[in-house]
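hiii, so i know i said id send this last week but things got crazy w the move. better late than never?? heres the sequnce for the chain we talked about at the cafe, plus the structure i predicted for it. fair warning i was half asleep when i ran it
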Amino acid sequence: MLEYVSSNKFPYRFQPTHINSGDELWAHAPDQLTHHLYMHGEKASSPHLQIIRPLFDAIVRECGNITLFRAKVNVTSPCPPYSKYEPHVPHVDLGYEDGVKVDHMVCIYYINYSDGPTMFFDNAWDLVDTVYPQKGRAIIFDGNTFHAGSSPVLSPFRFVMNLDFRQGLNQTP
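okay and structure toks below
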């Protein structure tokens, strides 16, 4: 998969990672490149969507039938002046504009060996767990858990696939 998502056949878009509320900037994190593969409710999906099939099938085996909300690939690179692992903005992946939580699960799949761990936080923003990328590792967690990636310090790139889903009703993209 790494060869596929790092080839010039797989296009990315620049994704600023600012979190704004109106005109007020709440937080900023290093920018990343993103390729959106699938978004529930949108008529078009990426022509590269088939790359999620092995991961999607593994999630179904683990969790039962699921409804996929979103699938994407994120790429981050070292971001000077960071010389240690700084979490990006802690967040939950899905929510409505009125702040209502969306019940969902998240699967993060590490596409390559890299540094730049994923960090998990409690509701008081205290760090409670850290998972380091290992090629082929997938972690599944409650989507309302605050989490944040971090930029690699030593590796040139950190590739992850992110799937957001709800258990029940098998709806394949």
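btw The first strand starts at residue 13 and ends at 15. thought thatd interest u
miss u guys!!
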